[in-house]
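Bumping my old thread because nobody answered last time. Still need a sequence for this structure:
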């Protein structure tokens, strides 16, 4: 995907290094479920599956659903052979679990049929799979293959704009805007940092600004009610 949008912000009041340091202090050593799964075993397939499960699903639900499913099948071959109803039962109550069960089975079947059971290592190739968007593709190449990239979900998009690091309207724009302002050393870890920060402090509604280490420096762009 060609870069189309550059950040129009000038992050001088809250510098990138200060932002990363402050957010790291706020969240400590906690990690999102997909990152925990990746740290336990850097397996692109397990990362792909758990990321698909994580969409519109609470972190703790994602972790437990992933564990139950991987007990039954943790390779494309094994998952492709599971009946959809078995996958549904294993991943419930993940959001849209019926749709995800069908998608995971079809993804697995295609990996076996067309890719010798190997998960592709490029975003463009991953995006050809039904049910795989840019967030999922980015997590697979960064956490699964160690390639540089910035995964942008709702937390990354929201917090980055609130802090004034970027000025964008869509997550896809945020991904490329962040590439212009973030040192490359921060790219891979930025998503897991912002996910926890967004869940714990910079919440969608009424963020906990009084508890944030960045409170004095953050411009709080478009933040209304806060605590």
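Sorry it took so long. Here it is:
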């Amino acid at each position: 995907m060609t870069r189309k949008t550059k950040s129009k912000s000038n992050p001088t009041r809250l510098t990138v290094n200060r932002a990363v340091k402050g957010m790291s202090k706020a969240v400590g050593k906690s990690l999102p479920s997909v990152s925990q799964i990746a740290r336990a075993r850097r397996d692109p397939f397990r990362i792909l599956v758990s990321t698909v499960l994580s969409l519109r699903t609470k972190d703790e639900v994602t972790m437990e659903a992933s564990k139950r499913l991987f007990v039954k099948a943790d390779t494309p071959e094994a998952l492709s052979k599971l009946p959809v109803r078995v996958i549904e039962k294993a991943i419930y109550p993940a959001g849209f679990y019926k749709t995800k069960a069908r998608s995971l089975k079809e993804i697995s079947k295609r990996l076996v049929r067309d890719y010798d059971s190997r998960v592709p290592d490029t975003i463009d190739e991953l995006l050809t799979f039904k049910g795989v968007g840019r967030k999922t593709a980015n997590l697979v190449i960064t956490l699964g293959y160690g390639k540089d990239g910035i995964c942008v979900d709702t937390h990354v998009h929201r917090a980055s704009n609130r802090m004034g690091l970027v000025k964008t309207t869509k997550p896809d724009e945020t991904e490329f805007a962040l590439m212009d302002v973030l040192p490359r050393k921060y790219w891979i870890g930025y998503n897991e940092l912002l996910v926890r920060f967004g869940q714990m402090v910079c919440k969608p509604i009424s963020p906990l600004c009084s508890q944030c280490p960045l409170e004095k420096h953050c411009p709080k762009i478009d933040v209304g009610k806060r605590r």
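The chain has two domains: 16-30+150-211, 33-144. Let me know if any region looks off to you.
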